[in-house]
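Interim report, section 4.2 (structural modelling).
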Amino acid sequence: MNAPDKYLELINLTKKYGEVTAVDGISLTTGATQYVCILGPSGCGKSSLLRMIAGHEVVTSGDIVLEQNNITDLAPADRGSAMMFQSYALFPHLSVRDNVAFPLKMRGVEKSKRHGVAEQFLERVQLDILADRLPSQLSGGQQQRVALARAMITNPQIMLLDEPLSALDPFLRGKIRSELKALQRALAIPFIHVTHTQDEALALADLIVVMNDGHIEQAGPALEVYNTPRTEFVARFLGGHNIVEAEKGKVSIRSDRIKIGSKKTKNSLNATVSEIEYQGSKIVLLARSERDLEISAEIPDSDFFQNPIEVGESVLLSWKADDAHLLAG
Amino acid sequence: MQSQQPAKNLNSGQSFSWLLVSPTILILAFFLVLPLLTIAIVSFWDYNEWNFFPAFIFDNYVYLLESPVTWATYLKTLKFTVLTWFFCTIIGFTVAFFLAFHVRSLTWQIALFLACTIPFWTSNIIRMISWIPFLGRNGIANSSLISLGVIDEPLEWLLFSDFAVVLAFVHLYTLFMVVPVFNTMMRIDKTLIEAARDAGASGFQILTNIIIPLSRPGLMIGSIFVVTLVMGDFITVRFMSGGQSASVGRVISNEIALLQYPAAAASAVILLITVLIMIAIMLRFVDIRKEL
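Predicted structure of the assembly:
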């Protein structure tokens, strides 16, 4: 694929609600077929950002460029974007077929034609047999797929998803998550997916954008963000990281890179085990250091059971110098 | 023995349920079913100029249904009903739409909604009578129109006319449309409107494709209020038409004034049946299965 790598470009995008700044001068560029996850705690401005891209929120200042077109002030339907809402926003009085065909109806496509197209898209999400049902007669996962079919029917250039998995139970969440990724690959268009769940972002994203307080803390490939979090916020929000004071400043160390050692070095500290959690393939050890710092260590279960440790025991926790990453700020 | 135990429990559970609903049943029986039965029974009685007495005759109904006055009156009442319903629906829907979708803050919604109810702090009759100095021959409406040069002489049809009757009805009953429609509109998920806009719907398409269909239960409840209120009214028609227009309610009230209770009862029964049929037809327009 030789699409331009500047597909969606956000330039100094800002959203203010009165005195409150929800999105504070965000600049971001994404590729043509990237799965982008915007990750952040609630109230960090990630939904406002998505809604500005979708055109449901007026931009206070800045620009949105999609495929070299400035879409900042266009109506939602003229942008080439399609949005999938958190609650799916299916029309309760319309059948599944009419829900999916709705965007075509608004464009004046005649009934038999738009129903035909709608059924094709329903087949794609394996719901063609339920076309006559009302949304309330479907399960959460089925409703979600209807919403996807409705979003796809306009052949959007970009798909915007607002916490699409948050209303599903954990089992279904994993299943739909892989369906979303497969769909994005098949459509070969960028997906912008807003979420507050770290593992969702890590599993899906080609590009993770961690947001906090209206600005981007870090944007990069999932591996990069997880291995080398740029700030303390990113490290804490992703979880599985320890923040330790070192000579040059704070460093982050992944929990699974911490070992129980025997030799005191520069990269080790003494701690008392406060909790041991069994998590199947691994053991999570929570310990408190002499300086009252909470440290978590993930130890493979086979290693742990060779040398079992009790709560209250003193241990020496150590790590390799390469695994400690200096944090900004 | 074992199989009898649950049956016994079920029985005592049932009698307990009956006990719980009995106050409602008693109230409805005493204040609704009993009076209706009395009216139905009296409608078959006989009467003369000064008395009415038990009998079982159909004369009241035969006279009522054969009289051309009845049919003319019903036609007139229906005309009032249709016109009032039409204007109440248009105005009520617009007001509710404005309150639900254009007023952003809940505080303002509540404040404006309460403002709509202010006229209800006074009685029907006062609100009706207050139209008279406004619409009269030398009233505010006519004198301002004359001073503006729109008309040369007072409009006669402003007061004591069908126009005045419908105007008063709309004034009195629009709120009965606003309340249920506003209520259903407030329950419409706002993201549905965003989703429709995302799908390319214009403002008008959102109105016709989303808001009106989803407001139908409220519109239907409001319509039932308006239709039953107008069909049964007698005082508004008398005041605002200056006694020149008839309505079914007025006929009944006249018959009561003349102590012709059996005739009044027969008229009431026919009116009740007519209104029930109208409501049944209206409920047909809403697919209850879909709305629930």
